[in-house]
Structure formats: structure tokens, C-alpha cells
Amino acid sequence: LGIEVKGGLFERLIEKNTTIPTEESKIFTTAAANQTSVQVRVFQGEREMAESNELLGEFQLAGIPPAPAGTPQIEVTFNIDENGIVNVEAEDQGSGNREDITIEGGAGLSDDEIDRMQAEAEEHAEEDERRRRRIEARNDAESAVRRAESLLEENEESVDDDLEEDIRAAMDDVEEVLEDDEADAEEIEDVTEDLSTELQEIGKQMYQQQAQQQAAAGGAGGAGGPGGAGGMGDMGGGPGAGAGGPDASGDGDEYVDADFEDVDESEDEDS
User: Which end of the chain is less packed: N or C, by CB atoms within 10 Å?
Assistant: First the structure.
């Protein structure tokens, strides 16, 4: 059991053959800026793509405060009681708004239907995995471009022109590959890695700037004075150290980029 996330992928929360009663939760976020509502689609199945599984139900969660993409934290909880009744709840952690759906008797699938779905999953396993890897690579690439734009904006005064030029060139490379419908997962992953490497240079550059500032302050106070060796001791915990951390490298992402459908806009276009 799980929900549909960005790119049409099926994100599992309850694995097959799980003993009931059971409960599982996961935090999701959005990929669209200023998204104020989401459509949560609940599926059961073995396939990697949501559309290839059985749709059990869907519901809307509204009242999400407008925020940049990736900022909202939406906790989705699956609960199955001892009678097999499934309850799915989505709660926006920022506003406290929540909605849920109850699916009586689970999916109501017969043993034959379950066997058929398992057989189809095995038959298409290689193809499904290839599609999943490519979609995940695209999702990561798009997130990396957004992160790069944000870091450049936040560190506008600290990043020198040469580094900004290199980062924007790497961003252009990513976007060019994303526009190529024939690009495979490995190609997308390669350019995304190149961009992530360039972003790490922001942290290194800020660390060097911090070191120079500390050295200058230490020199002004003399080798044994208040601004000397003691002044350098605080550098590791300063802005330079943080800039090279998870936000710059992208390794600190903890939430699933769900790209839920924006219900407010879905009347005009599909997310």
C-alpha cells in the first residue's frame, strides 16, 4: 500500500505480508512553489508506477500555507486495524490541517487478482526499475537546480563571479539533459553530480573567506593577543563550516519530494 508521488512513482508505506494491525508514517514535501492543496491518491500493488497498480481512493488536503517548493512537511500515515480496514491520513505539519480516507475491507481484491498483479510485477520488473531510476534521476536533477538557484541567491555577496558562472553553466547542462526525452538515468545522474560538485565549492569558498577574516582579526591583535590563536579557534563552528554541509551538497534531504497534485491549479493543467 502506498501513494503516488512525483513523476507517477508508487511510494510504498505498507509492504506486502505485513502483520496487522499496523501503522506506518512518512514525511513528504512539494515540488511546486506556493502550493496550497494536494491530492493524495492511495494505491495497492507491486508495480513501480502508480498507474499500474490498483487505485483504492483519493482525497484532498487543503489549507497548506504558501511556501517555496520543498518547504511544506506533509505527514502521511497508513493505519490498518485488525479487521483489515485501512485509514490514510495526511497532515500538514505547518498548519495542522489534516484530512483522511477510510477504505473498508482494504482493497477488496480477490486472491486471483493479487496473483495476477504479482505476476505482472515480476514480468515487468526490469522495465519498471528502469523507469523508476530515470524518474528519480529527473526528480533529483530538478531539485538540484532549485537548490543551486537558492544557494546563489542566499550567498549572493559571498560567491565570486567565476564560481557563479561555473554553477550556472552546470545548471544549464542539467536543464539541457532534462529537455532531452532520450536521456537515460545515467546521463541525468552524471550532470546532476557535476552540479552538486560545483555547489560544494560555495562552502569551500565561504570557509576560506571566514579563515581570512579570522586571520586578519588575529593579526591585528598580535600573535599572543586576544585576536590571535584564540580567535581562530571559533572558525570551525562559524558560517564557513555550515555552508559546506548538507544544504550545499544536497546530502541533507530527508523528505520525499512528492509533487502532489496542486488541486487549485489542476483544473487548468495536470501537475
Answer: C
